[in-house]
Specification:
The chain is α+β, with helices and mostly antiparallel strands. The protein has helices at 3-6, 38-46, 82-90, 105-118, 129-137, 190-205, 244-248; strands at 11-12, 16-17, 25-26, 28-32, 51-53, 56-60, 68-74, 95-99, 143-149, 160-169, 172-180, 209-216, 231-235, 238-241. The protein folds into 2 domains: 10-68, no CATH class; 80-209, Aminopeptidase. It is 25% helix and 28% strand. The strands form 3 sheets. The protein has an 8-stranded mixed beta sheet. The protein has a 4-stranded antiparallel beta sheet with strand order 1-4-6-5, with helices on one face. A two-stranded antiparallel sheet has the order 2-3. A hairpin with a 2-residue loop joins strand 10 and strand 11. GO terms for molecular function: arginyl-tRNA--protein transferase activity; leucyl-tRNA--protein transferase activity. It holds the Pfam family ATE_N.
Length: 261
């Protein structure tokens, strides 16, 4: 392993408005993933709470705020509840393929429709096809685009209803970004189904975890991540099981909260 891989250089972004908690600002620490050992570095950083975006690994480093918590599902111990089992049956007809990380027009059209339905004013809403291609293809690690399609008819591939950019790490699958039909009543709950399919995929591959990124205590947008139990959260003492009382405790106000007003 090169010296750069063993001792990567880290940088910090300038503060910017937090997309999850009003009145707060976010800041990230990041490093480049490159070279022959990018996968090993990504694995190591993933275990301490970093996430990948293209060829960069990052994690929050916000002054006075620790609301963003890295979470991962313990795949082998996951048992779907009645609602989740119903959802698995409902979408059991989907044809699922792990594709090479190559962007397609069909994927981009689905992404655009998803963003219009779920995040019309978000930072990704202005993405064009080149931006999407960079998002998918600029990966220095083992990555896939997992596609979810309706059944084929007369040899023709079925409609693409969901997709997820997924990294395979040494100890699990990391869901980088998923998108799906969010405005079609005939296919409800696709986002939840994609997460559960990743858990089942990890079980089949003998991988212990599914990394879901950051759970943000106090953000309704992130509350869905805690439905998949048992779940571990990364804290000062390492990865520990996330308990109900952890979610019930009110989020602490930063000591310098006035600075975020």
């Amino acid at each position: 392993m090169t010296a750069l891989s063993r001792f990567p250089r880290f940088f910090v972004t300038s503060p910017s408005p937090c997309p999850y908690l009003p009145g707060r600002q976010e800041r990230k620490i990041f490093t480049e993933l490159s070279g022959l050992h990018a996968g090993e570095l990504n694995d190591a950083l993933g275990r301490i709470g970093f996430r990948r975006s293209q060829s960069v690994a990052y994690r929050p480093s916000c002054a006075g705020c620790t609301a963003c918590v890295s979470v991962r599902v313990v795949a082998d111990e996951f048992q779907p509840n009645a609602t989740q089992r119903k959802l698995l049956r409902r979408h059991s007809d989907l044809e699922i393929t792990a594709c090479k990380p190559w962007a397609t027009e069909e994927q981009f059209a689905l992404l655009h429709r998803y963003l219009s339905a779920r995040h019309p004013g978000g930072g990704m809403a202005t993405m064009d096809e080149n931006d999407y291609a960079d998002m998918v293809e600029q990966s220095p690690v083992s990555s896939y685009v997992i596609e979810y399609r309706e059944p084929s008819v007369n040899g023709e591939r079925g409609r693409l209803v969901g997709a997820c950019i997924t990294d395979q790490q040494a100890d699990g699958l990391s869901m980088i970004y998923s998108f799906f039909l969010a405005d079609d009543e005939s296919r409800p709950g696709l986002g939840n189904f994609i997460i559960m399919e990743h858990i089942l995929r990890s079980q089949a591959a003998g991988l212990p975890y599914v990394y879901l990124g950051y759970w943000v205590k106090g953000s309704e947008r992130m509350a869905y991540k805690t439905r998949y139990r048992p779940m571990e959260a990364l804290g000062p003492n390492g990865w520990t099981l996330l308990e109900d009382e952890d979610m019930a405790i009110a989020m602490p106000v930063p000591a310098n909260a006035a600075a975020f007003a």
